[in-house]
Amino acid sequence: MTIDIRGLCKSYGSHQVLNELHFHIDNGIFGLLGDNGAGKTTLMKILATLLGFDRGEVEIFGHSLKKEPDAIRSLLGYLPQHFDFFPNVTIMESMNYFAALKGIQGKRHIQEETSQRLIEVGLIDQVHKKIKQLSGGMKQRLGIAQAMLGQPKLLIVDEPTVGLDPKERIAFRNLLQNYGEDRIILLSTHIVPDVSSTCDKLLILKEGRCLYQGAIDDMIRTVEGKVWLADVGKRQLEQLSQQARITSIVRKEGRIQARLLCNRPPDCCTEVTPETANLEDAYLYISDPEES
Q1: pTM for the full predicted model
Q2: pLDDT above 70: percentage of residues in the chain
Q3: In 57-215, which residue ranges form alpha helices assigned H by DSSP?
Q4: Domain assignment of residue 184, yes or no
Q5: Could you tell me if 209 and 241 lie in one domain?
Q6: Shared domain check, 208 and 246
Q7: Does 292 map to a domain?
Q8: Nearest-angstrom CA–CA distance, 192 and 161
Q9: pLDDT at residue 139 greater than cutoff 80
Q10: DSSP labels for 50-67?
Q11: Cα separation of 138 and 249, whole Å?
């Protein structure tokens, strides 16, 4: 099972949203990372057969996206960026509706399938609640459940952890890990920890162009030796920001521990130690190298 994209282009009027994208995806969880406006949602909608494109070729499991969209739809589950449903419908009624759309047949089969998905997202005890009674996080969990109905071979999730609390986010990551063994999951987000904790490979988009495609470990290696921790006082922080890119700060007992991204330790402070690079460091470096 593979996805192959060659020369994909998409414009809205004169605005080029996707520009000559080329990439290949195998089984597993594949991350799509980029700032807001990078083209992630447009790409997800195209792969979900909801949006056309101008040029290029897209093949999903050997099916041409332009010529065989129905064959692809039968194999996929999709969670859009903003999921909602009719306000006066209950959780179970909505799941039964989505099951019918997926072509799941048989009353017992539908009940088993919908119940299992709701158990997985922690909503099985809330099935009689109406959509209008749900919090944002509960709606998002319902969206995840409907996307997994029928155990699709391709699962596309766009910003899936938006609105989830930390506990729900961890549970969702674990769910994806268990679900992604024998299928393709496309995870689109701007939240770096969601990618680092679930994906082995990723694509970075910026203004519709591919900045990086490959293994996460290889990407992190691009910033080895460029990440530092500096222990500074409040007055030194402004001077430090002129010599290095500060990616985070932690305040401890009147002092500041700054995480830095730069080629060499800055001259303005003496207490600087090398630090192990992570995906966020690599993402910041690749997406905006001139600042580093």
Answers
A1: 0.87
A2: 99
A3: 69-73, 91-101, 107-120, 136-147, 166-179, 192-196
A4: yes
A5: no
A6: no
A7: no
A8: 11
A9: yes
A10: SS--SEEEEEETTEETTT
A11: 32
**Residue 102 and residue 24: Cα distance in Å, rounded?**
27
Domain membership of residue 283 (yes or no) is: no
Range(s) of the domain holding residue 162: 3-216
State whether 208 and 233 are in the same domain.
Answer: no
User: Letter for the amino acid at 292?
Assistant: S
Sequence-ordered list of residues with C-beta below 8 angstroms from that of 115, at least 6 positions apart, any chain: 124
pLDDT, tens digit, for every residue of 151-197? 999 999 988 888 788 888 888 888 888 887 789 999 998 888 889 98
Average pLDDT for residues 269-273, to the nearest whole number?
Answer: 81
Indicate if 124 and 251 belong to the same structural domain.
no
* DSSP structure class, residue 130: B
**What is the identity of the amino acid at 273?**
T
Sequence-distant (6+) residues with CB within 8 A of 120 are 145, 148, 175
Hey, which residues does 82 pair with through a beta bridge? none
Same domain, yes or no: 86 and 231? no
Residue 247 counted as domain residue: yes
pLDDT digits (tens, 9 = 90+) for 96-117: 999 999 999 999 999 999 999 9
Identify the burial level of 40 via C-beta atoms within 10 angstroms of its C-beta, where 0-12 means exposed, 13-18 middle and 19 or more buried: buried
pLDDT for 292: 55
What CATH number has the domain bearing residue 176? 3.40.50.300
**Among 216, 236, 253, residue at a domain's last position:** 216
Question: Would you give the distance in Å from CA 287 to the centre of its chain?
Answer: 16
Residues 106 and 210 in one domain: yes
Total structural domains within the chain = 2
For residue 125, the model assigns a pLDDT of 95
Q: For the chain, give the mean pLDDT.
A: 90
